[in-house]
Amino acid sequence: MYTALRLQRRLRKELRRAREGRGGVQVVVLAPDSYMTYQPFLPEAAAGSISPRHVVVPLRRVLPHCRVVTGEARAIDHARRVATVETLATEQAGSGPVEIPYDELVLAPGSVSRTLPVPGLAEHGIGFKTVEEAIGLRNHVLEQLDIASSTRDPDVRAAALTFVFVGGGYAGVEALAELEDMARYACRYYHNIRPRDQKWILVEATDRILPEVGEAMGRYTVRELRRRNIDVRLETRLDSCENRVARLSDGSQHPCRTLVWTAGVKPHPLLAATDLPRDERGRLRCSATLRVDGVDHAWAAGDAAAVPDLTAGDPGGEQPRECAPNAQHAVRQARLLADNLVASMRGEEPEEYRHAYAGSVASLGLHKGVAHVYGRKLRGYPAWLLHRAYHLSRVPTANRKTRILAEWTLAGLFKREIVSLGSLEHPRAEFELAAGTGRHPEGP
Question: 422: closest CA among 46, 41, 135?
Answer without folding.
Answer: 135
